[in-house]
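Page 47, continued from p. 46.
Same chain as before, 78 aa.
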Amino acid sequence: MFDFEPASKAMRIRSLHDGVTLEEVRDNTGFDLLVPDTIPRTTPPDTEELFMLRRAVDTTGVLAAKFPWPRAERKAVR
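Result:
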């Protein structure tokens, strides 16, 4: 996750998703980022947030096809 440092307006890293390293972010970003001394992990979405992302945001099913729901989750939201 990113945000902007208020004074300089430079983009900075706010948190890292599980499984993603600072090096990967740097390698996949085309510009310099501000990096805090400590980078927290991004809080994973809860069940309701996942439901909204999968039903309201991904209306064409592109992400669902690439990242299918585990069977247990599919049954829980029906």
